[in-house]
C-alpha cells in the first residue's frame, strides 16, 4: 500500500491538528502547542547505555556500602569484646589484690 505524500503517517497517540486548532492563538498572539520531538535511535541507545552504567554504579556502590556496614558492625563487636575482656581482667586483678591483702 503506497502512502500519499499529502497525508503523513502520524505516530501512535498523536492526532493531527485541525486548521482551527492551528490558528487557535493567532488573535491573542499565543503560539499553538507543539508536538514533542521524537527521540532518535541514537538518543535511545545512549540513554539505555547510561541507564546500564548508572545501574552498575549503584550496584557497586551498594556492595561497598554493605561491606562498610559489615566492617563497622564487626568493629563494634570487637569494641564490645575488648570492653568485656577489660572488665573481666579488672575483676580478676581486683580478686588477686584481695587475696594478696588477706592475712595468711
Automatic annotation (TrEMBL):
Biased composition (Low complexity): 19-31
Organism lineage string: Eukaryota, Metazoa, Chordata, Craniata, Vertebrata
Organism: Pleurodeles waltl (Iberian ribbed newt)
Region listing for Disordered, in residue ranges: 1-59
The protein, known as: Uncharacterized protein
Compositionally skewed regions (Polar residues) per UniProt: 47-58
Amino acid at each position: 500500500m503506497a502512502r500519499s505524500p499529502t497525508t503523513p503517517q502520524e505516530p501512535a497517540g498523536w492526532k493531527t491538528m485541525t486548521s482551527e486548532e492551528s490558528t487557535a492563538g493567532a488573535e491573542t498572539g499565543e503560539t499553538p502547542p507543539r508536538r514533542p520531538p521524537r527521540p532518535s535511535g541514537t538518543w535511545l541507545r545512549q540513554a539505555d547505555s547510561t541507564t546500564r552504567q548508572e545501574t552498575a554504579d549503584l550496584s557497586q556502590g551498594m556492595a561497598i556500602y554493605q561491606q562498610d556496614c559489615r566492617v563497622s558492625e564487626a568493629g563494634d563487636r570487637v569494641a564490645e569484646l575488648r570492653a568485656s575482656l577489660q572488665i573481666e581482667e579488672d575483676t580478676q586483678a581486683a580478686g588477686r589484690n584481695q587475696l594478696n591483702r588477706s592475712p595468711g
